[in-house]
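2024-03-11 09:14:02 DEBUG pipeline.ingest accepted 1 chain
2024-03-11 09:14:02 DEBUG pipeline.ingest length=309
2024-03-11 09:14:03 DEBUG pipeline.predict start
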Amino acid sequence: MQIYLPIAELPISILMVLGLSGAVGFISGLFGVGGGFLLTPLLIFLDIPPAVAVATVAAQVAGSSTTGVLTYWRRRALDFKLGGVLVAGGILGTVLGVLFFNLMRRLGQLELVITLSYVTLFTIIGGLMLYDALRAMWRVRAGRPARLRRRAGTHPWWMGLPLRMRFYRSQLYASVIPIALLAVVIGFIGAVLGVGGGFILVPALIYFFRIPTAVVVGTSLFQILVTMTGATILHALTNQSVDLILAVLLLLGGVIGAQFGGRAARNLNVDSFRLLLALLILSVGLRFAIELFIAPTEPFSVIVTEGIR
C-alpha cells in the first residue's frame, strides 16, 4: 500500500514508513533520545530528498516532544528558567542553521554537507560515548567505582564566567554564557541535520554542569520542542520542504514504538544501555561514511537555479 508524498514528489509504502518510524520510536523510548538523528539518515537512505527529510523530521521531533514536556511539567521536573536560556540560544542557532541550510541548497552542496556532518558528528560523539562506556565497565569489573567523583566545592572554569545566574530547580549557580553557547550549537545542528540534539544536550548538561538527570531530560525536551517548532516553521516558509503527510506517518509510528521501547528500557542494564547507544551512533556514522565512497547510480544531475528558465 503506497501513498504519494507531494513535497518529496515520490510514492512510498505506508507500512514501510510506519515500520521505520515505529522502530526508531522503540529505540527512542529505549534510550531516552529524540530519534531524529536516526530517522533523518534512514529517510535519506530511502531516497527521500535530504532537504525534505531534514525539514519533515524537525516537524516530527517537535510533535513527539510535546507529550514528554507535558509529562515532566506535571512531575515538576522541568526548569523553565534554564529552559528559557536554552531556548534563547537555540532560536538564534536555529535561524543561523536555516540560513546556512538554504545557502548550501542554493549552491547544490546540501547533500554533501549533511553527509560530512553526520560522519564527523556521529564519529566524535559515538567514539566518546563508546570510550566512556567501556571505561566504566572495566572499572566495575576491577571492583572500582564506574566514575571518579569530583571533589566537593570544585567547579569547572566555565561555570565561573561573567553573567552568573542561579537556577533553583536545577540546583545550579553558573554563568549563562556557556549554557547559551551550547544551545546555539544545538539549535544550529538541529536545523541543518534535522535532529533534536538531545543526545548531545542531555549528557553535556549532566557532565559539564552537574544538573540532576530528571530535570535535564524535561528541560532538554522543552528546548527541543521550541527550537524544532521554529525550525519547522522556518523550513516551511523559506524552502517549502516540510511534507505534512510524511510527518504525520512518522509521528504515528514513532508514538506507538516509543511506548514499547519505554517498557523494554526497564529491563536494560545501565552499562549495556550506554554501550549499545554508542554502537548505534557509530553505525549510522559509518553508513554515511560508506556513502562517500560508493559511486552514485546516476553520476550526473540537473540543478535548476532560481531565475534561470
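2024-03-11 09:14:41 DEBUG pipeline.report The longest strand covers residues 2-5.
2024-03-11 09:14:41 DEBUG pipeline.predict end
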